[in-house]
């Protein structure tokens, strides 16, 4: 998970204080992951134990991934599975797949339409 976090920070350049939300999985609760968040000046938020609704966006992603990409596939190696996940996210899920929660836009289109800075006081 630390490598994935480093990759995300490299590609996305998040602002200091960005909140990284996750479940209570051991990889997210580990000292190494928390240290990496601190190094990147990111804040951690964890869902309540046993409440899948707190992490609904990720639950929805995994459902989509399993039904659209993984169903009936057998990966020969861990590396092949990793490549397929990356390809699905980078080539389809983020740039093309429409999301009802984003007014039927792709995540990339939605993000590009967002203001570059959001005043928290507006919410």
TrEMBL record:
InterPro entries named among the record's database cross-references: Integrase_cat-core (IPR001584), RNaseH-like_sf (IPR012337), RNaseH_sf (IPR036397), Transposase_IS3/IS150/IS904 (IPR050900)
GO molecular function: nucleic acid binding
PANTHER family assigned: TRANSPOSASE FOR INSERTION SEQUENCE ELEMENT IS904, TRANSPOSASE INSF FOR INSERTION SEQUENCE IS3B-RELATED
UniProt-listed SUPFAM superfamilies: Ribonuclease H-like
Gene Ontology process terms (BP): DNA integration
First and last residue of the signal peptide: none
Name of the molecule in the record: Integrase core domain protein
Residue ranges of domain Integrase catalytic in the record: 1-115
